[in-house]
Structures are given as C-alpha cells and as structure tokens.
Design goal:
Length: 127
Amino acid sequence: MADVNRGNRPLSPHLTIYRPQLTSMTSILTRITGNALLISSLLIVWWFLAAATSPEYFAYADGVLTSWFGDLVMTLSLWGLWYHTLAGLRHLIWDQGIGLDLDTAYKLGYVVIGGSVLLTLLTIVII
C-alpha cells in the first residue's frame, strides 16, 4: 500500500533542533573513549610484539610511540582511560538509583570531566 500522506507528515526531530546537554555529551564521549582505548591498546600490543620480533623492528615501533605524535596519542589515551573509568563509576552510582536528578547528574558530569583532566595531569607528573 502506498503512503499517501508521506509529504504531509512532519519530519522527526533532528540533531539541529536540540541543544547539546552535558549528560548527552558525556555519554557520547564515554562511547568514543571506549573505542579509542581499543585502538591505543592495539598500539601497545604492537609495541610488545615488535619487542618480541627483532631489535630493528622494536626500534621502529618504539620510535613511532615515543615520537611527538606517539606521545600525544598516549597522553590522550591516558586521559581517555581516566575519563572512561570515572564515567563507569558514575554509571555504577546511577545503577544504585543515586544521583538521577538533573542537578546531581550535571555535577557528576563536571566531576568526571574535571577529575579525568586532574588525574591525567597527576599521572603525567608522577610518571
């Protein structure tokens, strides 16, 4: 059967209609950091495999990971690890039915963002 009202129906809401909210952005960022951590873990596995293969190949892999680009990727991976960990803790809190009101959810979102930056900086300074 043909849909005769196809052109008369309103379009479904689109991303351009909604204003980004902290809770939605932190949820999206949690998914992004989870996938990015998979990529960075593959880089670390590549580094270990290169160490087990030959000194020349290890020198190449180590050169890539200790270059300015490798340092940038590993630093962002460290931030992603802290962010993903804190976001996971926030979800554990939410799973207990705590902090589900809007004000507390926003506070926890700011804590996750600020805490991940602070813990990343502390990790870099300590190491």
